[in-house]
Q: What sequence folds into this?
């Protein structure tokens, strides 16, 4: 009876039978052929969910409720289906309650199986979320729990991940002669892969910098390089660290196609001298009471993608009342609901205005980004590192 009352239909390949978001009440049983089930995601792309062949079925939810379709269903090859809509189901029930009861029972069985699969997916998602949370805590442990506190200086960090884990990172380490290593990096992409690479990057930079700097100090103490100045040691440490890091990544991890932008520096607190390397990173800005003084442009390419490249070392002296602000492109590229970016010009305009502290500057930029993005999902990690030399009265 079902075969005679239901509509039998034949479709060519490429015909859209169910449209995601449409409200329809037709249940399909595949007699011959195959269909593809897919779901629309961001930017007009589709994610393939399943391919159903003869004996498969779809659209059962639409037969019993009035909710939109959850996916698109398109014929993969010429396909023959039975189509059962709400009116057909009602006629079957009226003509033969037994067949109607059996059909309803089968549809309910399908729904029950879907509920079981959904519950299983929920449990798997919860397990994955727990693993991500563990990863977040481990990643958090790679970041310094507190920024260094130095007489006459203020060092502030801010990291706001776009997801559970982040591809951005920062670091600050005080050497035993009071000079300070400062690092800000941005790994390409987002998510777990970027987070793993972030951990590797941070570990390499810290380990190589500490090794090279302490090697210079031992040489000075042993009189092997008596003429070598502290400034030369700072510059050489930066250059050797980035060369070793880039070499290690390109030799051992080139197949990952992962790389990072990297700004890192060593600060000499007594004089305000800063030696730095900028590996393809957004140029940090030096700003003071009279606005922006300069930007610290790239001294070499991205790190981890091109072997055997060279990096120059830049230098600058921070005067009292000046702040050096480094930030990732998540700041300039923060987007609102209409996909309009916050923009570099807006950041520069904020930096022209003086602030009483590095913390106030970072908070003012953060507040401006929040006002711009409002309820839009965060598109990228947002990270800032601010170093301010206090005026004599504030030391």
A:
């Amino acid at each position: 009876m079902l075969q005679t009352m239901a509509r039998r239909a034949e479709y060519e390949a490429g015909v859209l039978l169910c449209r995601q978001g449409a409200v329809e009440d037709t249940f399909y049983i595949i007699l011959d052929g195959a269909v593809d089930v897919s779901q629309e995601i961001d930017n007009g792309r589709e994610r393939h969910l399943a391919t159903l062949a003869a004996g498969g079925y779809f659209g059962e939810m639409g037969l019993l409720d009035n909710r939109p379709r959850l996916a698109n269903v398109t014929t993969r090859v010429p396909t023959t289906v039975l189509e059962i809509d709400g009116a057909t189901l009602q006629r079957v029930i009226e003509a033969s309650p037994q067949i109607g009861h059996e059909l309803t029972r089968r549809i309910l069985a399908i729904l029950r199986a879907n509920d079981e699969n959904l519950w299983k997916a929920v449990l798997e998602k919860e397990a994955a979320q727990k693993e991500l949370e563990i990863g977040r805590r481990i990643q958090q442990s790679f970041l310094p729990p507190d920024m260094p506190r130095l007489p006459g200086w203020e060092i502030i960090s801010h990291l706001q991940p776009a997801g559970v884990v982040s591809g951005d990172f920062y670091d600050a380490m005080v050497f035993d002669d009071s000079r300070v290593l400062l690092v800000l990096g941005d790994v390409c992409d987002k998510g777990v892969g970027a987070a793993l690479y972030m951990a590797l990057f941070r570990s390499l930079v810290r380990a190589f910098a500490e090794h090279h700097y302490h090697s210079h100090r031992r040489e000075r103490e042993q009189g092997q390089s008596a003429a070598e100045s502290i400034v030369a040691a700072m510059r050489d440490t930066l250059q050797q660290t980035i060369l070793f890091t880039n070499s290690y990544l390109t030799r051992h991890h080139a197949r990952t196609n992962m790389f990072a932008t990297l700004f890192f520096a060593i600060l000499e607190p007594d004089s305000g001298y800063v030696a730095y390397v900028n590996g393809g990173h957004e140029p940090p800005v030096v700003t003071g009471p009279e606005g922006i003084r300069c930007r610290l442009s790239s001294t070499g390419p991205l790190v981890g993608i091109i072997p055997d490249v060279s990096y120059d070392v830049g230098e600058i002296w921070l005067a009292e009342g000046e702040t050096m602000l480094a930030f990732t492109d998540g700041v300039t590229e923060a987007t609102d609901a209409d996909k309009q970016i916050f923009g570099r010009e807006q950041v520069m305009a904020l930096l022209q205005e003086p602030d009483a502290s590095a913390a106030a500057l970072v908070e003012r930029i953060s507040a401006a980004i929040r006002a711009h993005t409002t309820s839009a999902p965060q598109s990228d990690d947002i990270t800032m590192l601010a170093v301010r030399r206090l005026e004599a009265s504030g030391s």
Notes: Residues 97-142 form the longest helix (46 residues). The CA atoms of residues 1 and 95 lie 9 Å apart. The domain at 143-394 is CATH 3.60.40.10 (Phosphatase 2c; domain 1). The chain has a mean pLDDT of 85.
